[in-house]
């Protein structure tokens, strides 16, 4: 590895560990704030690896500011991601508003994705999720939309359905999802960031363990993207471990 790359990676690792320490201190002094520090074998979103298949560190914090409204931030190492113009990390910044109506939970969110270490890569999206809980199980229907932006070569719509159930008598939760990415293409090269083979489906299943503040999990992810365009988009098994304040 080139010395500059090694220094850059060390700097991001130190920044994330410092952020995690700051989140811990904040959470201990501000009720309602939650913070999490995780390590994972890949950063895979909607079936696509954002970290070129490399392991990542992730720090996140959620700050409630009003009834049902929270401000959220997540920082994830990307180690010079080819998918995102050589970005060293992704910062997901935004807000979430949630309301319970009967047995339903309705959520609206807005996010902006920043990519330190790369130029002209940032983009924003909005989303809505409707969830229903029945005993230990819940079902979510979601839609997330990134309006037309030059950084993603057009617009992008992601529709998904997911389900999760706690396994009775155990600390395990089993979940699965199916999603569909589509959108208008204005710049094919930039649009390939989020849709390398045009419109596509992704799916996955996960088994997660929760014990106190600790959690761990295994997730299987795959897409229907054709082989010539399936670099970091094929079947993968991802492991993670995390600690939440």
TrEMBL record:
Signal peptide start and end residues: 1-27
InterPro entries reported in the protein's UniProt record: CHP02001
Highest taxon of source: Bacteria
Source organism per UniProt: Sphingobium limneticum
Assigned keywords, A-Z: Signal
Name under which the protein is recorded: Porin
């Amino acid at each position: 590895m080139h010395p500059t790359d090694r220094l850059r990676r060390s700097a991001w690792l130190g920044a994330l560990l410092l952020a995690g320490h700051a989140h811990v201190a904040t959470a201990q002094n501000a009720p309602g704030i939650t913070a999490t520090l995780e390590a994972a074998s890949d950063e895979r979103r909607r079936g696509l690896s954002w970290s070129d298949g490399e392991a990542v560190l992730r720090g996140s914090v959620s700050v409630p500011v009003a009834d049902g409204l929270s401000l959220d931030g997540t920082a994830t190492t990307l180690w010079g991601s080819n998918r995102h113009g050589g970005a060293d990390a992704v910062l997901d910044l935004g807000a979430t508003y949630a309301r319970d109506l009967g047995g339903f939970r309705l959520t609206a969110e807005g996010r902006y994705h920043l990519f330190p270490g790369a130029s002209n890569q940032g983009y924003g999206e909005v989303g809505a999720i409707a969830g229903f809980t029945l005993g230990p199980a819940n079902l979510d229907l979601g839609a997330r939309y990134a309006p037309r932006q030059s950084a993603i070569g057009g617009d992008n719509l992601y529709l998904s359905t997911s389900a999760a159930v706690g396994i009775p008598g155990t600390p395990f939760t089993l979940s699965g999802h199916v999603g569909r990415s589509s959108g208008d293409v204005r710049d094919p090269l930039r649009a390939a960031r989020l849709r390398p083979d045009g419109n596509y489906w992704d799916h996955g299943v996960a088994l997660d363990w929760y014990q106190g503040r600790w959690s761990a999990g295994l997730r299987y992810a795959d897409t229907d993207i054709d082989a010539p365009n399936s670099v970091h988009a094929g079947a993968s098994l991802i492991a993670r471990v995390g600690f939440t304040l």
